[in-house]
Amino acid sequence: MNPDKSSPDGGTRDLQTQPPGGSSDDATTTTNSPATPEEIKTQQAMAADVIRSQIGNLYDGGGSEIATELAATAQTDTNPYHREHKAHPLPEAEQWKQYHTAWQNYYQKYYENYYTAKAATPPILEVREEAQSSKSPKHEGYFAHQPAEPVHTETAEELSNNEALFELRQKLLGRVHESAKKIRKSRHFIPIISALVVVLIFVFIQYNQVITANVMAYVSPGSIDPQNIVVDPTTDVAVTQDPRLIIPKINVDVPVTYDIGTDNASQMAAMANGLAHFPIAGASSHPGEAGNTVLAGHSSNDLFDTGDYKFIFAQLDKLSVGDSVYANYKGKRYTYVVTKTQVVAPTDVSALVYPTTKPILTLITCTPLGTALNRLLVTAEQVSPDPSAAAAAPAGSGTASNTTVIPGDSGTLFEKLFGK
Fold first, then answer.
1. Which of 62, 155, 257, 324 has the fewest Cβ atoms nearer than 10 Å?
2. Same domain, yes or no, for 226 and 358?
C-alpha cells in the first residue's frame, strides 16, 4: 500500500509531526557523540522493526471484521461463483493519522542518524559511502516479506585499513615533496659544482694543446686550393719575393722567416708568423744552396698564445716518401721530394748536421700531437731547378750546435708561470 495524504471524505489532511500520546522530543533521540557505522546500522534496523510492528497492528485490528464477513458469506452462498463482493472498508481517519505519524517518525530518526554519522565520518569514508549509495540504494521495502536489496558494505576493520593506507600515501607524498624542495634549495651542491668547474678549467688550460691539436689534425690548416699549386717540377717558375713553403698534400701555404736567431724566444716569435728558419752550424743553408735548410713550425701550441699558425704542421706526419714540397725564395720556386721521416729527441741536434753536397730541406715539428716530447723530422731533396747547379752555403754561417735545442712549443700557461 502506498501512503496517501487524502482523508476518507475526499479532503486533505496535514501530516502530523508528533506521534500519538507524546511530543516529538519523546520520539527522537539526540546523539551527543558521533555514532559508529555499526551503531547506525543497528538504529536503522530497530526503527524499521518499530514501523513494521505499528503497520501490522493497524491492519490486524480491521482484519478480524473482514474475516468474519467472509466466513458468513461462505456459509450462506451455495454457489461460490455467485458471491457478492463487498467493498473493502476504508481505514478510519485516526488510522491514517497513526499510519502517517509512524512513517514520519521513522524518516525523522533515519535522517537524524544519517546526518549525525556524516558529520563524524572522515572524508575518505564519505566518498566511499556516496559511491556505494550511488551504485546500490539501501531503501527497504514497506513490508517485512519484501527483503531489502543485498548491498556489500565495508566493515569497520576494512574502513580503518583503507583510511590508514590513504593517510600513509598522503604522508609519503608530503615527504617526497618536502625532500624535493630541500634538494632544490640546498646549497651543498654549490661548492661541489664550483670545485668541478675549477678542475675542468685547470685541465683545459693545461692540456688545451692536446685537445685542440687533435681537432685541428682533421682540419686543413691552410687556405689554398691544391689545384692551383700543381706545377711541373722541371719548369723554372717565377714567383713573388715573399718567401713561402707550399705542401699540396696537407694543404699548407705558409710564410717563412729566414736568418733569425736559434734561441727559443726568436724562434717562437718567428713561428707566430709562420715558419722559422733554424740556422745552426752545419745546417744553415737556404733554398737553392747545397746543404741542409731547416724550417721549424708548430704542430700545436698553447691556445692562449698569439699567432695564426699554432697548428700549421698538425698534419705533417701524413707526409710520406715521394710527396712534393715547394719553397719560394727570392722570386724563385724550388721543388723538393720527401726522402725520409724520423722522430728524434729535442736535444738531438746532430740529426740535422751531416755532410752533403745536395740541396736538402728539413721540416721540424713537435710530436706526439699536442705535446713537445719529441721532434718529427721530414727530409726532402731538391729536384728542381737542377740540384747539381746549386752553390754551397756561405762558410761560417749558423750557430754552434752543442748549445742548441731543437725548437718546440712555447709551453703551457702554468709552465710559463712556474717554469718548465
1. 155
2. yes
Say what the alpha-carbon torsion angle 310, 314, 315, 320 is, to the nearest 10 degrees: 100
Q: Among residues 144, 163, 182, which one ends one of the domains?
A: 163
| DSSP 8-class letter at 280 | B
Does residue 198 sit within a domain? no
Alpha-carbon distance values, 366 to 9, 223, 256, 342, 413 (Å): 126, 22, 18, 12, 18
The per-residue pLDDT for range 367-400, each reduced to its tens digit, is 988 888 999 999 999 998 888 888 877 765 555 5
The count of other CB atoms within 10 Å of the CB of residue 100 is: 18
Task: List CB contacts of 82: < 8 A, sequence separation 6 or more.
Answer: none
Judge whether 194 lies within some domain.
Answer: no
Most confident range, picked from 11-15, 76-80, 325-329: 325-329
Domain of residue 52, residue span: 24-78+85-163
- Looking up residue 363, the CATH number of its domain turns out to be 2.40.260.10
pLDDT tens digit sequence for 317-351: 999 999 999 999 999 999 999 999 999 999 999 99
DSSP reduced 3-state for 351: helix
Domain assignment present for 180? no
What Cα–Cα distance (Å) separates residue 88 from each residue in 9, 52, 85, 110?
15, 22, 9, 33
Alpha helices in 18-143 (DSSP H): 24-27, 37-76, 93-120, 123-135
Residue 8 falls within a domain, yes or no?
Answer: no
